[in-house]
Amino acid sequence: MSPRTIGLIANTRKPDAETAVPEVVAEFSKAGCEVLLDAETAPLAGARCGLLRGDLSRRCDVIVVLGGDGTLLEAVRDFGHDAPPVFGINLGSLGFLTSVGGQAWRQAVECIAQGSYRTEERTLLRVELVGAASARLAGFALNDAVISRGELSRLIKLDVAVDGAWLSEYNADGLIVATPTGSTAYALSAGGPVLTPDSGVWVIAPICPHVLTMRPVIVAARSTVEIRPKPDGPAVYLTIDGQEALPISSMEWIRVTQAAHRLRLATLPGTNFFEVLRQKLKWSGTAV
Questions:
Q1: pLDDT surpassing 80 at residue 288
Q2: Which of 76, 90, 262, 287 could form a disulfide with 121 if both were Cys (CB 3.0 to 4.6 A apart)?
Q3: Residues belonging to the active site
Q4: Which CATH number fits domain 125-258: 2.60.200.30, 1.10.357.30, 1.20.1080.10, 2.40.30.10?
Q5: Under CATH, which architecture does the 5-122+262-281 domain have?
């Protein structure tokens, strides 16, 4: 079924956003779609005010994000559990999440207006901070949860268990728990493997471990990962999808499980994960 209401979110800091937003709005309007904008994007389309992103996700059939992968990650953080499909159009080079380049935006608009886009369900991490008496939700991660050191350049010590079984004590700059979506982000830089979106696993990757035999570990997505910083160590921070660093008190530890909901990521029909992978990582099969 063709969507009738389109939500539009743009990275207003991108140089091309000022031109792209009114053009995209006009093209959707010509196709008979109503376009709603978030508060930051609205001025670029000449609107006085826009909607909060949570309200936008509840009122739209599809949300289009103009920007890069970081823009999409930031937007997803504000959506509810029942968010509509999210379609990313990159205003720079191709991204893994915004896999449609800015040159193809008209094709993307036509595809969305006709309802011929393809969707993939992407796993999310549920990240909690657990104290002595209770647990509090830190957030949901599409890419990763990163536990890292603070201002001082010292190794942190983290005890890690998977489904109640002790895995190891990590002496490192930090630790990454990444979804398949996040396996091509920070975890890849830390030596982790590339996971296909439908692989049904996560990767636990240490950041610059002191013991060189420490390597990334793949675990089932249904696992419960518990990360306990040593209480006598330096300051430790939790970052979800690279958006905000939360300090972890000496009385808290981190629990990561699979979220009950998923993100529906939309793209053009025929878009292939491995094609995007080759382009982004510049895999040509040759030495040059």
A1: no
A2: 262
A3: 69
A4: 2.60.200.30
A5: 3-Layer(aba) Sandwich (3.40)
